[in-house]
Amino acid sequence: MTSPETVTWLKERTSLGILSSEVLNAIAQVIEEQVVSAETDLVSEGTPPEALYILVEGQLESNTTNQTNPALACGFLPGAVIELKELLLDELTPFTITTVTDCHLWVVPGDKFHELATQYPEIAQAFSRQLAQELAQVTSALGYEQERSVALRPYLVTKAQRGIVGTSRYAVRLREQIRLSAADRKSVDIFGEPGLEKDNIAALIHFGSPKRREPIIKVNCGILQTSGADLFGRAGGKPGLLEWLGEGTLVLNNIQELPEELLPSVTQLLKTGTYTPVSRSGEAAVEPRPSKARILIVSEKTQPTIERSVGHIIKVPPLRVRKADIQAQVEYYTSLYVRARGVSKPHITPEALRRLQSYDFPGNLKELKNLVERAIVQAEGANELTEEIFWPAETKKKRFRVNLLNAYPSLRQFLRSPWWPDRINYGFTATAFAIIVAVLFIGPQTRDRNFVLNLFWAWWWPFFLFLFPFLGRIWCSVCPFMIYGEITQKLSLWLWPRQLKRWPRQQAEKWGGWFMFGLFTLIFLWEELWHLENTAYLSACLLLLITAGAMIFSALFERRFWCRYLCPIGGMNGLFAKLSMTELRAQQGICSASCTTYQCYKGGPQKGEGMETNGCPLYSHPAQLEDNRDCVLCMTCLKACPHRSVEFNLRPPGIELWTTHVPRTYEVALLFLLLGGIYLHRLPELQSWLGLQLDLTQFWQHLGLSLLVLIIPAIFTFGAYGLLQVFNKRKSRSFVELAYGYLPLVLGGNLAHYLRLGLGEGGRILPVTFATLGLSGEQLPILVAHPAVIAFLQGATIMFSVLMTILLTQKIAKQPLRTPKGLAKLSLMPQHLAAIALAVSMWAIIVF
């Protein structure tokens, strides 16, 4: 077969066109025509080549079993030359070629082609030149791709982190918007509040589009050059990101931070799909260049200029309007975390879920994710994520707070130093306590001759009762009971290495408070019936019993289980600490967004500014605290925190009692027990005031009257609440909630009682100390207040306390003292009258 038309066709339509006309004419002379029907294998993979095939009409398709090189599978159109390389290099056919349609082929038998290749070396040389050109093209393309990869690598988004979780109408609509946006190449504006993972939505759009195999990069607009050179490139110089990106996707993150100088250029890109490279001053104007990149914009608010230029607008709904999706989000984040860590998946309790759903989440999904991960860490392998593990932030919490650590840097330095409280505890308190107990046992047994009894009853009680409104539970940070508990814990672990028991939290929360109540009742009765105030060895026994409880439970359980749940003194301290004008808390925004160590709670090695600690002794997180009950001001969290999140705030006294406070029945029982204790301490005066003729030297009469005195104040206040319910037409708060209103009166009444000892006997400490040592101290100075001064201070304390009780009760009930018309509010009058009656009775038995 030979004709000028055949040679011309070979030269113009095939890769053999690089050969001379003489060679093409020789090839044309040996060509045989062949028609192959559809769905027929023309050549088979792994077989020697039989002929050179030239496709004239029709369509061929190759396929291969080589999974490492899928590029071998391709299609062939007219003009394709098949088996040329295999014939020249004597290789096996790398793939099977099948006819897709009926095909017209020109065939050069293999033996004849070898003869031609031998006769015309130009064939092999031309093929070598062709291979060299192809290799050069591949090398050039590879070099370009390497440069492109280097340029885009810092901005690449490799995958979408997660899908849209939830079944609410907002989640369904958001998924539909993402699907529609992924279907075309129009630009998209994605805006919404912080923490909504808007950049992840941009990634979902890209990876759901037909161009998913093209690169997607995310550029923070706040770091772009004002000239735009990094985005648009320079004329005649370095290409910009748009040029390197090709048909990929550009995510402009935080568009509100875009330099104003670039706003016109970005608007031009969105409207026309063109951009102008940056040129130097004095250079000729540069023509705009087309860009095939897709633009996705992420912002917190819509930008009016840009909004008019984009094809799709997606407003991402905040989490507070998607409360129905919170459970699904929590389950999803929990699954992700436990799968990554290889731990068992905990179950979230209904109470915890309701608490999360009642919170507005200003940090949105990011805050929820951090809360879930933190809760799993704090649960430490537990099967449930309970309500107490989660801590929603208070949006208005910063109001009325002053961080004393910022106002007084020297205070921060001291509280982070080894002096507070370790050196004080182990260098002074532990030794002093041992001496005190020894003196109580071997020294004189009356308060006027034993300086330890004087210190305990005339100094310790009034001083710390006075300190509660200022520093809360600070006594517990230097308490000798727990110092010996910690010594016992460390010593027992050294002698008997073991894993201490974890806290039985549920049982302790349910019964621990009632244990404290019962123990405090016994202490009150012991104090009254056996005159502990004036019997040294019995006071020592009381101290040793409380210390023994701390030591026993410290040997069994982790950290300070006794302090948090069982110690009667700690229970009283935690109750009165609610009235404190100071608090230790954490900046919840920092904890939720930045903290990954949880060292304030768990403990850990030194990290940054955070010191090495064993974690909070009461297993409390400063961002989790709702009141001062479970904070002993040991400052472990302040020392451990590497982010300066912990604050020591000045605040309105007792503010949490009418804001975030959670009432507890056992706390109310302890409150009324302490109220009855005021009357129990004044039993002779009470008997005289009421005109009772009971013989208190008789044990059973004394015990019966003591029990009545402890119970009657609680019955009296409950009766006042009953009247309140009768006269109040509107539904009022529960008795347990309103009972906390009596807390200032209880504290004030106890302080008024101990003022007599503090101001009347505390100043005799020097002669009493000499008397303890068997010396005469009659000539030593004393400093005591006049009885009239003591009575005045006691009365002033009671009056101030009842006033604070009335104000606090109104706050807890969320009722103003006066109506807008200026009329007094009468709905809480029964409880106010009860508080006044209690104050009058205290005045009668304490002041007079």
TrEMBL record:
GO biological process: regulation of DNA-templated transcription
Keywords annotated in UniProt: ATP-binding, Cell membrane, Iron, Iron-sulfur, Membrane, Metal-binding, Nucleotide-binding, Transmembrane, Transmembrane helix
InterPro entries, A to Z: 4Fe4S_Fe-S-bd, 4Fe4S_Fe_S_CS, AAA_lid_NorR, cNMP-bd_dom, cNMP-bd_dom_sf, NosR_regulator, P-loop_NTPase, RmlC-like_jellyroll
Domain Sigma-54 factor interaction, chain residue ranges per copy: 164-377
Domain spans labelled Cyclic nucleotide-binding: 15-134
TM segment ranges: 424-443, 463-484, 511-530, 536-557, 665-683, 703-723, 735-755, 784-808, 828-846
Stretches assigned to the 4Fe-4S ferredoxin-type domain: 621-651
GO cellular component, one term: plasma membrane
Domain of life of the source: Bacteria
Stretches assigned to coiled coil: none
GO molecular function: ATP binding; iron-sulfur cluster binding; metal ion binding
Cell compartments where the protein resides: Cell membrane
Official protein name in the record: 4Fe-4S binding protein
Organism: Nostoc sphaeroides CCNUC1
